Amino acid sequence: MYGTRKELTRELKDAFVADEPLALLVWTTESIKSWLRAHGITESEAAEVLIGIGNLPMRDHQSDGVSFDTIANLLNGVRSQSRPINVPADVLMPLSESAERALKTIREMETDCELPASDYVDGAFADVALLRELLAA
User: In b/e form, how buried is each residue of 84-117, taking b as 16+ CB within 10 angstroms?
Assistant: First the structure.
């Protein structure tokens, strides 16, 4: 379960009879940040991991628990999601130029070695072109 104390109290009241014994294990964003401090976890990432823990099926956390590996895997999932970031154009332009030079070198090596043009390099050239187009807008 995931939610505020008030929301969880309501859910527990609806799911269990009043005199049913329970064991309640609590995770907070602070406990997650403490466990993953070495990974440089942010407050928003910890909140997303907490939601992930709350969304784990009961049978999973009953059989496997919520271990360091569990929360580290949840953090990796959060970090692998596409998210917008702000980067100044004057930082991106030289990076795009360096990337294009490197791609041209790779393409020349492919040609010199009579290798077929790789899809990876083609895709990277397209990414650089898109970046330049966005910077020009």
Answer: eeeeeeeeeeeebeeebeebeebbeeeeeeeeee
What is residue 60's predicted lDDT score, i.e. its pLDDT? 87
39-87 pLDDT per residue, tens:
899 999 999 999 999 999 988 888 888 988 999 999 999 999 877 788 8
State the chain's mean pLDDT as an integer: 91
Q: Tens of pLDDT along 23-35?
A: 888 999 999 999 9
Q: What whole-number distance in Å separates Cα of residue 95 and Cα of residue 130?
A: 13
**In the 3-class helix/strand/coil scheme, how is the chain assigned residue by residue?**
CCCCHHHHHHHHHHHCCCCCCCCCCCCCHHHHHHHCHHHCCCHHHHHHHHHHHHCCCHHHHHHHCCCHHHHHHHHHHHHHCCCCCCCCHHHHHHHHHHHHHHHHHHHHHHHHCCCCCCHHHHHHHHHHHHHHHHHHC
- Which two three-digit tokens encode residue 69? 């590996």
